[in-house]
Specification:
Layout lengths: L23 H20 L2 H10 L11 H7 L25 H13 L7 E5 L4 E5 L5 E6 L2 E2 L28 E9 L5 E6 L4 E5 L9 H6 L7 E3 L3 E3 L1 H12 L4 E5 L41
Parallel strand pairs: 1-10, 4-8, 7-9
Antiparallel strand pairs: 1-2, 2-3, 5-6, 5-10, 6-7
Helix pairs in contact: 1-2
Length: about 300
């Protein structure tokens, strides 16, 4: 199946004014003082000559200056105060969210890690997904179904294997930062590709196996029964139609899947979003141009 992808792909010179003096008498005084110091140095023993050099005003330039010495001795240089950092935060509206989900969302908005694209945060511990507009305003949230087994990694090459060969302990939803895009599966159903190589997508809940009770699992208030899939992220059908699809239509986006066996700071370049914190340059993840398997783990 052909999958179309798009590739996501400031030194000022300060001119210092040279100050020149036209006062001849001042220049003569400086020369006379220099001559006097030179004669004095010749007439003194070496150690006294060094002491005289230390006392000379120009000698202060050979050692570090304190703040007040620098102001008094050197020509004044006009400077501007550093601009203070005003933190940006994600807007969760009135939606309930874990501290970890809020931390990651705030960091995404403040650092610009989403590259001005819509983004989603999947909180595996709480089994919930939050979809945001590019500016960090929440578009919607919903419960999710996740991989049967807890874990943040995935088995190498699992995207190429038939579902029947994937053992229960291998059915995980990997954590990480993924560039996502809408597409269709083999049955023509719309999905949001998340992890291309490992065949992980976000899609409307699968209901073809009544015994799995996926709809009922989504409806319960606890996340304890939301582990059932082969790794894909199942969401309510209406949520996909009303929130996911509009958010990612005509654009790529970023999906952040929070880890459950590690701390988020071990997976993302997180920092505490607060005034005065330097912004970090986010690390981009290249977008695969294709996926080796057309299968999707349900």
């Amino acid at each position: 199946m052909a999958i179309k992808r798009k590739r996501i792909g400031l030194r000022l010179l300060a001119m210092m004014p040279h100050q020149r003096s036209a006062n001849v008498r001042s220049l003569a005084a400086i020369l006379a003082k220099g001559l006097y110091l030179g004669l004095l140095a010749v007439s003194l023993p070496p150690h006294q000559a060094c002491a005289a050099d230390d006392a000379a005003p120009l000698s202060t330039l050979s050692r570090p200056l304190s703040a007040h010495e620098g102001t008094a001795t050197l020509p004044a240089i006009e400077t501007q105060p550093l601009m203070s950092h005003h933190p940006k935060r994600a807007n969760f509206e009135q939606e309930r969210a874990s501290h970890e989900a809020r931390h990651v969302a705030d960091w995404v908005v403040d650092s610009g890690d989403n590259r001005s694209m819509p983004f989603a945060i999947v909180d595996k511990t709480d089994a919930r997904v939050f979809v945001f507009a590019a500016n960090g305003r929440l578009r919607g949230a919903a419960p999710v179904l996740l991989g049967l087994t807890r874990g943040d990694g995935t088995v190498l090459g699992i995207g190429d294997r038939p579902l029947s060969t994937i053992r229960p302990q291998e059915r995980t939803t990997p954590a990480g930062r993924f560039v996502a895009a809408l597409d269709r599966n083999l049955r023509g159903k719309e999905i949001l590709w998340v992890d291309y190589e490992d065949a992980i997508s976000m899609h409307p809940v699968i209901t073809t196996k009544p015994a799995e009770r996926r709809l009922q699992r989504l409806a319960t208030p606890t996340p304890l029964d939301n582990r059932i899939s082969y790794g894909c992220i199942n969401v309510p059908a209406k949520f996909f139609e009303k929130v996911v699809r509009p958010a990612f239509t005509g654009t790529d986006g970023i999906v952040y899947v929070l880890p459950e066996t590690r701390m988020a700071r071990e997976v993302f370049a997180l920092y505490e979003v607060e005034g005065g914190h330097a912004r970090l340059e986010a690390v981009s993840q290249q977008v695969p141009t294709h996926i080796s398997s057309e299968a999707v783990r349900p």
